Amino acid sequence: MDILIVAPHSYCTEGYVRNCDRRAYETAKRLGQLINNRTQINPTIIYSDRPRAEMDYNRIASRYSGVRDQVRDFLNVAGPKIIFEVHSFPNRSRGFGENHVGFLAIDHEPYQTQMERAAAYISDRSGGKIKIYAGQGSLANDLQLETSSRSDIIHYLIEFNESYDIMTDYQRDQVLEFLLDLHKIGLNRIDDGLNISGTMHLPFAKILIIAICLVGLLLIIFFVTEIVFDYSSKSDVV
Predict the structure, then answer these.
(1) DSSP SS3 for 210
(2) DSSP letter at 92?
(3) Rounded to whole angstroms, what are the CA distances from 54 to 59, 61, 62, 234?
(4) DSSP output for 32-50
(5) Coil, strand or helix: which one is 54?
(6) In this structure, are residues 70 and 143 in contact, taking their beta carbons and an 8 Å threshold?
(7) What share of the chain is helix, strand, coil (3-state, %, to 5)?
(8) d(CA 23, CA 124)
(9) CA 201 to CA 184: how far, in whole Å?
(10) What is the pLDDT of residue 214?
């Protein structure tokens, strides 16, 4: 399964005015590190190359920009894919409040189901300590809209609280690790596939091969035991 990390509002300039998602760049980079730690594979990461006011890379006006061309190049490669679209929000912003993290999905299936499943899984794994907002995203999000017709893609839009007092780096890493666990990314293997709901599975062929190997091993042990027993019996007779 191919993995893409994209942070469309990650280009920040110095100053008091908030002109970017201030935690997006570092979070996208950290997610790439965690995936590499698990799989020894460097996932593709696409950052924005200018402030959001100049070019908003998840809006339709940017669809034919260089950054979006990179996304399309990734989409055009055959095979199942997962996209982590990374954003951040200022604490107490409208909708997100003081939640640690937010998931947004446009009103298309399977994105709504994938979002709700991920939010419930992370909340459960954290014992409810990580507060999550899960809501409907805007159809103006052209990145999700462009991928919504593909049944072989999981696309998460994840928002992280920019307040380090509310959302520590440790908690951020927990969210990322839980999300990777949900899809079994790097648990001794790269995932073998996914169905439309985003559930990863081990192919039946591999299970069959393992079963055949185990049966073969048991037969070898049985025959060796019989030979040793027969030899011992003959020795006793002599």
Answers:
(1) helix
(2) T
(3) 12, 11, 10, 90
(4) HHHHHHHHS---EEEE-SS
(5) coil
(6) no
(7) 40, 20, 40
(8) 24
(9) 9
(10) 82
Residue 60 tokens read as: 């339709």
Q: How many angstroms separate the Cα of 59 from the Cα of each of 17, 36, 183?
A: 21, 30, 28
Q: What number of H helices and E strands is found in the chain?
A: 6, 6
pLDDT band at 232 (very low <50, low <70, confident <90, very high): low
CB 3 within 8 A of CB 84: yes
Which of 34-38, 101-105, 125-129, 174-178 shows the lowest mean pLDDT across its residues? 101-105
**Considering Cα of 170, then 176, then 179, then 180, what sign does the dihedral take?**
negative
pLDDT of residue 25: 96
* Per-residue tokens: 93: 């912003």
Residue owning tokens 């949900």:
182
Tokens representing residue 136 in the block: 């409907």
Q: What are the pLDDT digits (tens) for 120-136?
A: 999 999 999 999 988 88
CA distance 87 to 23: 7
Question: Closest Cα to residue 74, out of 87, 83, 65?
Answer: 83
